[in-house]
Design goal:
With 146 residues, the chain is an alpha/beta fold. 29% of the residues lie in helices and 28% in strands. It is built from four helices and eight strands, in the order ααβαββββαβββ. A hairpin with an 8-residue loop joins strand 3 and strand 4. The relative contact order is 0.16.
Length: 146
């Protein structure tokens, strides 16, 4: 029986595509899950920060991703009307880097998002604290002033 199971496992691994195997072996943060009230409002907000719609896993979980995976973790948006997952809206805190914080602030303001102030400039970084449409805290990080 043990030999049959080992053979079945080896056969499954041999038949798996390299991409699937790499995904199973790789370690690191895959994504951050946040609870959202409205998928489209959240998608629109994160699009201003450079993310785009990814997979729809099911009716309650949709993905936001970066063009380049090296930019950071994906966000899995959860809209759980049944409250089975016991997630609270506004309970996440994310740090997102941007190469031009002033341009990002201008895009957020032009898109009409309230509460977008001016970044605080420190010797190490420019920092702006804001919230997404569901109240999740975001620390937007840009380069320090020259």
């Amino acid at each position: 029986m043990r030999g049959t199971m080992a053979l079945a496992g080896a056969t499954a691994l041999a038949c798996a595509s390299p991409a699937v195997m790499a995904q199973q072996i790789a370690s690191g943060m895959h994504a951050i899950k946040i609870t959202v009230k409205d998928f489209q409002k959240t998608i629109d907000f994160y699009a201003v920060l450079g993310m785009k719609m990814g997979s729809k896993y099911n009716a309650a979980e949709w993905e936001l991703k970066w063009d380049n995976p090296a930019q950071g973790s994906n966000i899995i948006m959860v809209h759980d009307e049944t409250n089975q997952m016991k997630m609270t809206p506004g309970g996440a805190f994310m740090m997102i880097s941007t190469p031009d914080i002033k341009a990002t602030v201008a895009r957020l303001k032009a898109a009409g998002y309230p509460g977008v102030g001016q970044p605080r400039v420190t010797p190490r970084a420019s920092i702006l604290m804001l919230k997404d449409p569901d109240g999740n805290q975001i620390e937007l990080l840009g380069p320090a002033a020259p």
